[in-house]
Amino acid sequence: MADADEMLNEIEALGAKLAEARKSIATKIIGQEEVVDLALTAMLSNGHALLMGLPGLGKTLLVDTLSTVMGLSTNRVQFTPDLMPADILGSEVLDTAADGARSFRYIEGPIFAQLLMADEINRASPRTQSALLQAMQERSVAVAGQDRALPAPFLVLATQNPLEQEGTYPLPEAQLDRFLIQINVRYPDRATERDILMATTGSEMAEASKVFTPEELITAQALVRRLPVGEAVVEHILDLVRACRPSEADASELVRQTVAWGPGPRAAQALMLTVRARALLDGRLAPSLDDVAALAEPVLTHRMALSFAARAEGHELNNVIADTLSFVSDRKAAA
Known about the structure:
Blueprint: H1 2-26, H2 33-44, E1 48-52, H3 59-69, E2 74-78, H4 85-89, E3 90-96, E4 102-108, E5 115-119, H5 126-130, H6 133-138, E6 140-143, E7 146-149, E8 155-160, H7 173-176, E9 179-184, H8 190-200, H9 214-226, H10 231-243, H11 253-258, E10 259-261, H12 265-281, H13 289-300, E11 305-306, H14 308-312, H15 317-334
Parallel strand pairs: 1-8, 1-9, 2-5, 5-8
Antiparallel strand pairs: 3-4, 6-7, 10-11
């Protein structure tokens, strides 16, 4: 009972901090509440997020604001076709002392930050994109034969422009799977865009304030993993992920006809973490089936692929995932 009361107090305290963080973020990011909540969900889950959207929709501003509010050291890497892995990870240089002695000295790259913004990640070559793989998964990099730990927490928020634009390289599936969620940043509605105009073109600009410290964020991430998940939610996650695989007996007919390959176990792990984080953001003590439905598209979209024939017929992954959610719910209701 004492442990339950202690967790309840921690959840209430974290809820108050998160409410303050949202308020601070809203001074810079007008509208886009869903985008902000998804980004905070990724950070609370200690995962990386991929921000998808056209230029000029505030992706870079969001990352800058999050770094301020969460109190994280941050670096930004502008990905370009000529960017090399050493430009991200760092490299060794040969120093010559006054007495003529020579020795190698390691110069850290921009990846040594608590929050790394990988801007337009799909403009870099596949070789440079792959330089992030070990860092994103293991929170360390290997340079000159030595493993070097990255700061804690270590989070990557990458922005990506649509692939139909010139000068881009598709991210490999192995790297896409390292992102906990994909966040689609869309055009604002008319009223929101008017508010943006009025707030950003005057003589004074609003400033976000620091709310969290890195240590407080790490504590919140630990609390997310301690939050209990009901058996019904666990089974719903398993049913959904397995139903999105065309080779599974539980798959719907639409998935069999349209999906080339489905999500792996890492997708189920991501859903387990993110539904907990979403519950905490709302001040709830446990996640619900609604959390699974809300996070299905951000967690699964980049972990699935449509077949060529399905894309030619105009199918879209978000519609396939929504149909699969309904299929799983209807089948459970009929059981």
